[in-house]
């Protein structure tokens, strides 16, 4: 049964060594808003930052889209129960990355608090969700897309887990990454 505060409308709960992934709640948007007003954070995720300061309603609109096309999670530190980011295991919605007959997922991810970047949290989350996607959801291909070319951190994350660049997009401003089931099984 879906609880009223379960914005994500799923009941998948996952765990890594230091983190929990739980369905995203409405209240998590309130936690996220101040981080979405940090230019360094916004620059990492958006090609061109929004003109107006980010509001809860703005984030909810994007959140609804993700919720309707996949599994939206809050990333929670086990040590203190604090929500520190969002991640969505999302069915591929970009025509350029679809392949007829294949189940393909993408993975928008953001750790909101930049003091927590580079501590291995991103890798823990993605490793866990790749295992879930290939193991439980039986996907054929995992394809994080629209990674800004100047987002070195994000690119390092995908490369460290065995993904490679599949194409450039938006006139070379964005990169799409991928790993196939066969490649994933070879290294896991
Ligand atoms: C991108 C993001 C999810 C990565 O998570 P993270 O916890 O910071 O990254 P990790 O510490 O798990 O590092 C993953 C790999 O990248 C490497 N890495 C991390 N920061 C790096 C940096 N600044 N430069 C080069 N490599 C870096 C790590 O060494 C690690 O590789 P290794 O295991 O081979 O050593 C996180 O930084 C984030 O949320 N950033 C803001 C939002 C964002 O950019 N989202 C992605 C949009 S496409």
Q: How does the SSE layout of this entry go?
A:
Elements: E1 14-15, E2 19-23, H1 26-32, H2 39-45, H3 56-68, E3 70-77, E4 83-91, E5 104-106, E6 109-111, H4 121-135, E7 141-142, E8 147-148, H5 152-160, E9 164-169, E10 174-180, H6 181-187
Parallel strand pairs: 5-7
Antiparallel strand pairs: 1-2, 2-3, 3-4, 4-5, 4-6, 7-10, 8-10, 9-10
The structure holds coenzyme A (COA).
Residues 41, 44-45, 109-111, 117-123, 147, 151-154, 156-157, 160 line the site of coenzyme A.
Sum up the overall morphology in one term: globular
CATH class: Alpha Beta
Which molecules are bound in this entry?
coenzyme A
- What is the helical fraction, as a range of percent? 25-40%
Mean pLDDT comes to 96
Q: Give the name of the CATH architecture.
A: 3-Layer(aba) Sandwich
Proportion of beta-strand residues: 25-35%
Radius of gyration, taken over Cα atoms and rounded to an integer in Å: 16 Å
Distance between the termini: 34 Å
CATH superfamily: Gcn5-related N-acetyltransferase (GNAT)
The helix/strand class is alpha+beta
H/E element order? EEHHHEEEEHEEHEEH
**Count of folded domains:** 1
Largest sheet: 10 strands, mixed
Overview of this protein structure:
The N and C termini lie far apart (34 Å). The chain has six helices and ten strands. Strands 1, 2, 3, 4, 5, 6, 7, 8, 9 and 10 form a ten-stranded mixed sheet that branches. The protein has helices spanning 26-32, 39-45, 56-68, 121-135, 152-160, 181-187; strands at residues 14-15, 19-23, 70-77, 83-91, 104-106, 109-111, 141-142, 147-148, 164-169, 174-180. It has one domain: 3-Layer(aba) Sandwich (Aminopeptidase), CATH 3.40.630. With 188 residues, it is α+β, with helices and mostly antiparallel strands. Strand 1 (14-15) and strand 2 form a beta hairpin. The chain is globular, with a radius of gyration of 16 Å. The structure holds coenzyme A (COA). The site of coenzyme A has 21 residues, from helix 2, strand 6, helix 4 and helix 5. Coenzyme A is lined by residues 41, 44-45, 109-111, 117-123, 147, 151-154, 156-157, 160.
